[in-house]
């Protein structure tokens, strides 16, 4: 059963959460930002649209449902996302492994 999609903010975001900055077949997650509680397709989208600086999620809040799969429309906890080996645990869609190079922009390391 697919869930209703959440609204993902950003620049030219499609229904799979791909944006003008990241739009490969595997760029299908959005992240709820700690600073504002709003889902954005990527950090660049946040920085273009939001009127405040981004903040990272502290490790003690990694149980927060903050990563949205644009394929099945399920929201994962940060802990689930970081441990999923680039595959959605709900629908098995492949996530972009290159996103790991940006984790420090979203999650406390």
Layout of SSEs?
Elements: E1 29-32, E2 39-40, H1 43-49, E3 65-69, E4 75-77, H2 78-82, H3 103-106
Antiparallel strand pairs: 1-2, 1-3, 3-4
Helix content: 10-25%
Radius of gyration: 13 Å
pLDDT average, as an integer? Answer: 95
Query: N-to-C terminal Cα separation, in Å?
Result: 34 Å
Query: What is the structural class?
Result: alpha+beta
Biggest sheet record: 4 strands, antiparallel
Principal-axes geometry comes out as globular
Protein architecture, described:
Strands 2-1-3-4 form a four-stranded antiparallel β-sheet. It starts with 28 loop residues before the first strand and ends with a helix. It is built from three helices and four strands, in the order E-E-H-E-E-H-H. Strand 1 and strand 2 (39-40) form a beta hairpin. The protein has helices at 43-49, 78-82, 103-106; strands spanning 29-32, 39-40, 65-69, 75-77. The protein is globular, with a radius of gyration of 13 Å. It has one domain (29-106). The chain is of the alpha+beta class and 109 residues long. The mean pLDDT is 95.
